[in-house]
């Protein structure tokens, strides 16, 4: 924050105590979009410290209860009842305003999130490459989303949110500003400048480090450092391991729109197809699901890979509006 723009100055501004020169200074400060997030944080804190409506309902309720209990002379009851009723009527507009304000605050929070951040999505069956405001290159796998600050990174951290899979080539900053990828469920990647592949889906988290060094922040406050060639994998239960794969192509094959299978079960193959193309393929037979496959296959759409699998495993493919079923055909006796 600018040394002239302090939290106390912003609080004075919210309370209408700022001078015209101070208001002008704040307006100029807000012209820099990087200051908007700090401004909204101060707004939230000030609103929590300064509720805009205080209603003494306890006093009114006490008077009314006292009246019902006969604690007031008969000739005074009509006067008290009128006074309590009048207070209630006077509060109605304020209560309505309070309800409307609550709704507006909730909407402001939602729309502020939309204002401050944008989501970059990669279509099904295709990947998308782009540069962030700090020149970091991102290649986003199909059926994946990266949430990034709309107005650029702040002064403390470069932070993005990943759902799906992406390759990052992070640009090192002169001020050593760290770059973080939040993957949900307590997983966070922290780097300064490096190249890595990150995977974040329902079935687990994965990070493959190509160059540089990264620190992984894991659930329950654990930390783990990776070196080039390390491959971190964690399942949905949080069980993780770090290995050095002999063939990294299996991890990055998606950039060539290919599938790399090394003694993979058909169930694992189907899981990858579902993730990459956002389809729902179900294997009916357990025996069929456990059969294995190896090799490299290029496929820009699920049908191309399904045709290959159908020929390899002599299986029947049944399509409906909601899903695709794979099953072993029943052989007729001759």
TrEMBL record:
Top-level taxonomic group: Bacteria
GO molecular function: sigma factor antagonist activity
Keywords: Membrane, Transmembrane, Transmembrane helix
Transmembrane stretches, start-end: 91-111
Gene3D superfamilies the record matches: 2.60.120.1440, 3.55.50.30
Pfam families: FecR (PF04773), FecR_C (PF16344)
Domain Protein FecR C-terminal intervals: 259-324
FecR protein domain: residues covered: 121-215
PANTHER family: PERIPLASMIC SIGNAL SENSOR AND SIGMA FACTOR ACTIVATOR FECR-RELATED, PROTEIN FECR
Protein name (database record): FecR domain-containing protein
Annotated organism of origin: Dyadobacter pollutisoli
């Amino acid at each position: 924050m600018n040394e002239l723009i302090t939290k106390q100055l912003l609080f004075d501004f919210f309370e209408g105590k700022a001078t015209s020169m101070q208001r002008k200074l704040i307006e100029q400060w807000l012209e820099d979009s990087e200051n908007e997030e700090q401004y909204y944080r101060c707004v939230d804190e000030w609103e929590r410290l300064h509720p805009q409506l205080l209603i003494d309902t306890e006093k009114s309720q006490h008077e009314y209860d006292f009246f019902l209990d006969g604690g007031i002379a008969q000739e005074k009851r009509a006067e008290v009842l009128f006074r309590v009723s009048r207070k209630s009527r006077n509060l109605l507009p304020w209560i309505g305003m309070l309800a409307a304000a609550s709704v507006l605050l909730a909407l402001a929070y939602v729309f502020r999130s939309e204002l401050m951040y944008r989501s970059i999505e990669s279509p099904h069956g295709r990947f998308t490459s782009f540069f962030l405001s700090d020149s970091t290159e991102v290649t986003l796998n199909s059926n994946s989303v990266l949430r990034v600050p709309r107005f650029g990174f702040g002064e403390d951290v470069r932070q993005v949110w990943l759902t799906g899979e992406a390759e990052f080539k992070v640009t090192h900053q002169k001020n050593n500003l760290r770059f973080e990828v939040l993957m949900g469920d307590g997983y966070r990647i922290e780097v300064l400048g490096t190249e890595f592949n990150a995977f974040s889906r329902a079935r687990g988290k994965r990070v493959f480090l190509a160059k540089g060094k990264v620190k992984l922040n894991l659930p329950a406050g654990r930390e783990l450092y990776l070196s080039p060639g390390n491959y971190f994998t964690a399942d949905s239960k949080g069980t993780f391991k770090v290995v050095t794969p002999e063939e990294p192509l299996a991890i990055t094959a998606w950039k060539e729109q290919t599938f790399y299978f090394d003694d993979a079960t058909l169930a694992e193959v189907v899981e990858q197809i579902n993730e990459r193309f956002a389809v729902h393929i179900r294997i009916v037979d357990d025996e069929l699901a456990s059969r294995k496959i190896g090799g490299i296959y290029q496929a820009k759409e699920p049908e191309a890979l399904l045709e290959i699998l159908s020929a390899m495993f002599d299986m029947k493919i049944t399509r409906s509006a909601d899903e695709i079923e794979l099953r072993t055909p029943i052989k007729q006796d001759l």
